[in-house]
Amino acid sequence: MEKVWLGLGSNLGDSQHILQRAWEALGEEACIRILSLSSPYASSPVAMESENRFLNAVGILETSLEPSLLLALLQKTEKGFGRHKKTGVDGYQDRLLDLDILYFGERVSAAADLCLPHSHIAKRLFVLAPLAEIDPEHCDPDSGRKVKDMYQHLLRQIADGSMQPQDIHREKWL
To answer: Which long-range contacts does 15-22 make (Cβ < 8 Å, 24+ apart)?
Structure first.
């Protein structure tokens, strides 16, 4: 079994219900053992235009699957919750469910279909805030930096204006 950190997100429908149900569905898989789920965090869209706010969380699980097979399972789960990518549209889109592998153990790779660790972790409060909540001491295998340090660095960058503001606040699961 290998430890995996997942990002969960939604900005369409009943996002809180969708994220909770998706997390439970992953835990029903024989090859997965769920360990921890952060609080939900409401945030404005980053790197995309949308009128819909996002709800995000980070979860930690263990799996016996290899990264490519876990990715396929996550994509199947997204589709099961009604996610359909619009063809002919570049960039990020509104979505019912988005499941991203943030870290897969200590693996570092830059495959075309799966970059490990996820390439945008250090730039996204909606990832770093929930990640710092549940595993602040986790060390990024690529940069060697602890999550709590990456989170504080991003907050400083936003405060000094070198990164765009990211509106985010912690909520509670219902």
So the answer is: 15/40, 15/54, 15/55, 16/40, 16/55, 16/171, 16/173, 16/174, 18/81, 18/96, 18/97, 19/55, 19/57, 19/97, 20/173, 21/81, 22/77, 22/81, 22/97, 22/99
